[in-house]
Amino acid sequence: MTATATPLAVELRGKTCLVTGGSSGIGKAAALSLAQRGAHVVLACRDERRGAQARTEIAAATGNAHVDMMLADFSLQTSIRDFAGRVLDRFRTLDVLVNNAGTWSQKRRETAEGIEEVWATNVLGYALTTALLMDLLVRSRARVVNVASMLARDLDLEDVEFRRRPYSGVRAYAQSKQANRMWTWALARRLDGTGATANAMHPGGVSTGLFRKGGGPLSLMAAAWARVFGRSASAGADTVVWLATDPKLTNVSGKFWIDRKQARCRFQEVESEEKLWSLCEQMTGVSAR
Predict the structure, then answer these.
(1) Domain that holds residue 279
(2) Is 173 one of the catalytic residues?
(3) If we measure between CA atoms, which residue out of 49, 48, 68 comes closest to residue 58?
(4) What's the pTM value of the predicted model, to 2 decimals?
(5) Cα–Cα distance, 20 to 100 (Å, whole number)
(6) Number of domains present in the structure of the chain
(7) Is residue 144 in some structural domain?
(8) Residues in the chain with pLDDT < 50?
């Protein structure tokens, strides 16, 4: 939690909250905080063992019996489709969706579906998950919270997979985080008037395992910096939980937040946002509203 943040005394019993990438880091910390407030929390995790362990730990720490884990690989559209179908079959309402699952790679890699892995996970994962759950989110007047970053730049909508440009792990991650913000603004426009909202946030330099997974010396350096200077996962998740739960934010949408404060986003330009939205629809084959 940030130095200025105050605890949220918000009761969430009867609410359903879905957190992608919930087995560790910011996702796990957000899920823990939501479970502490009585929510039915669903952890969407790629690794069954780690996901089950996280579910057990959160349930034990909170005394909340309504903590579930569902498997999903957010780099693969087939897995997301299967996951979304299971969510729709099981839940009649979904009050909060936290799009958090993400990755980083120092070397260019493609998924089994032939899409550059960072773009597939960090951007198309958010877009496809939300699109497939859109009717449920609108019906529930849900809050969508997208974990973005201040490390945002280098988006090239003509070459998002680095098929022509030289690949850089930093640039691939940074363009995905720029896209997260821009896609959020386009989503917020589509949710306008429905009662559902969408916001993006920057969690700060959190000490998580994200950068260790990327491989190479730069990833090791970033991971080492985070261990020494990074904030805790719970501090990084504080704004996520605040956006998901604070009653004062019921109708607040289309904003960028850092430490519970609205921040200016330099990536706001409707034409580019709409071009990105169309690209995501094209690459996923799903049109949302």
Answers:
(1) 16-284
(2) yes
(3) 68
(4) 0.91
(5) 5
(6) 1
(7) yes
(8) 1-4, 219, 223, 225, 228-229
